[in-house]
Amino acid sequence: LRQRRLMQPAFHRQRIAALGQMMVDETMALRARWQDPAQRGAPIAVDQEMMRLTLTIVGKALLSIDLGHEASEFGQAFKRANARFGYENMLSIMLPWLPTRQNRQYKSALQTMNRMVGEIIARRRADPGDFDDLLTMLLGARDEETGEGMNDRQLRDEMMTILLAGHETTANALTWTFYLLSQHPKVSARLHAEVDGVLAGRPPAIDDLPRLPYTRWVFQEALRLYPPAWSIARRAVEDDELAGYRIPAGSVIHISLYALHRHPRLWDAPEDFQPERFADDKVEKRHKFAYLPFSTGPRKCIGDQFAMAEGQLILASVAQGFDLTLAPDQRIDTAALITLNPKHGMSMIPRLRR
Questions:
Q1: Which of 138, 198, 170, 192 is closest to 305 using CA atoms?
Q2: By C-alpha distance, which of 303, 123, 325, 307 is closest to 216?
Q3: Distances from the Cα of 327 to the Cαs of 33, 61, 189, 343, in angstroms?
Q4: What DSSP assignment string belongs to 320-349?
């Protein structure tokens, strides 16, 4: 609770609004890089492109750091670490000391991420500068009882959480969004019509988001079908009973948001991609716990508003310039790791719209 209160100001609406222009600028730079493959009809790895983009954004937004080439190295390290949590690697998870290839890759990836984050902390300690960001808040935090600040390990752990949760989830959500749009041309056409009509050719801004409701619905519906945090866990604070099952105090309950978001008792045509189900009148009629892409309650994702604004701005910016079609040889399967990944990546062909 103390850490959450400390970090909350970094995610206030006003601060997010001030970051909107940077999010759009980074996406426009990505669009410029896509010009060449679009003209050649060459595929791009959309999942990797989104990872680099969102990691760059979270670095600038929360740490005042341009990760640049480091974004790729950090993202690849996390990809290797995340792969260990696949079902096929269950032996490595149960026996972390076993010298398997997966365990060796996992430890190597952790060392890479720890080194990179440690270097960021060391540079800021050596040159504090005049920054008003999350890292400054963490460096300046003091324990209410002892007056001591965080040590480097505590700082590293907090920053690692922010960097990973702040980029990988949104990148996966956008990747699945572009996949769904490629499979539903009518939805894609309506999205393009809204973006073209509201923006009239100029880049989007944070103030445009209220006038882009269908863009928001598309992103929300993608989060329903492919929630990046596909499973969450909660510990029972006291004895309870759930659907006839006794839940002893201290038990850890896993909740599958993937299953919840596709439950036929909560959703009509649950497997269909229907952004209209997020219109205000339909949301009001829905059970308040039927849709939890960011969880809920006191442990709800601290960056939910940041992620929603970022997702909508990136989606509008990309849709303004490109259609994305699935590469002919691209296989689609989910990989339920720490987050819900496209198992075989997401190779897509960008087509210039204008």
A1: 170
A2: 307
A3: 18, 33, 19, 15
A4: HHEEEEE-TT----EEESSSEEETT--EEE
Residue count of the chain, please give it.
Answer: 354
Element (H, E) at 198: helix 185-199
> Where does the pLDDT of residue 92 fall: very low under 50, low under 70, confident under 90, or very high at 90 and above?
low
Q: Taken in order 294, 192, 274, 212, is the CA torsion positive or negative?
A: positive
User: CB count, 10 Å around CB of 138?
Assistant: 23
pLDDT recorded at residue 12: 85
Confidence of residue 91 (pLDDT cuts 50, 70, 90): low
Greatest C-alpha distance within the chain: 62
Q: Could you tell me the CA-to-CA distances from 221 to 81, 113, 182, 338 in Å, in that order?
A: 28, 32, 14, 21
Indicate if the pLDDT at residue 26 is higher than 90.
Answer: yes
Provide the edge-to-edge strand list for the sheet that holds 322-326.
44-45, 347-352, 322-326
Which single residue is written with the structure tokens 């965080």?
150
| Cross-strand pairs, 256 | 231
